[in-house]
Amino acid sequence: VGLALGYNGGDISWTDDVSVNGTKYDLDMDNNNVYLNAEIRPWGASTNPWAQGLYIAAGAAYLDNDYDLAKRIGNGDTLSIDGKNYQQAVPGQEGGVRGK
Predict the structure, then answer these.
(1) Containing structural domain, residue 31
(2) Which of 33, 41, 59, 78 might form a disulfide with 37, Cβ 3.0–4.6 angstroms?
């Protein structure tokens, strides 16, 4: 029987690095994954390579990932989504769109 306990996590922030249909977005990722796996080898310490390669695995995981996609536009900038162009409603302020 083999056990594996692991964690994969961290924050990643990309500024203007994700491009979708020519529009650049800021992407923030917050990853938090914890997992536990168990492996059972039914034939134990067999010297047969085929028997060594066969095993049964089961596991459980906790996934808590948060992704944030944002686009900000300033004065005179245009945001294009699905072939439609959008401009700021109030000049002199920053506008944008955000998705989670």
Answers:
(1) 2-99
(2) 59
DSSP symbols for 36-86: EEEEE-TTTT-S-HHHHH--EEEEEEEE--EEEEEEEE-TT-EEEETTEEE
Judge whether 88 and 96 are in contact, CB under 8 Å.
Answer: no
The count of structural domains within the chain is 1
CA geometry: angle 15, 27, 63, nearest 5 deg: 145
Query: DSSP label at 93?
Result: S
What per-residue string of b and e applies to 12-42 under the rule 16 or more CB within 10 Å gives b? eeeeeeeeeeeeebbeeeeeeeeeeeeeeee
Q: What is the pTM of this model?
A: 0.55
Q: Are strands 56-63 and 66-73 parallel, antiparallel or unpaired?
A: unpaired
> Which pairing describes strands 66-73 and 2-20: parallel, antiparallel, or unpaired?
unpaired
Q: Under a CB-based contact definition with an 8 Å cutoff, are residues 30 and 11 in contact?
A: yes
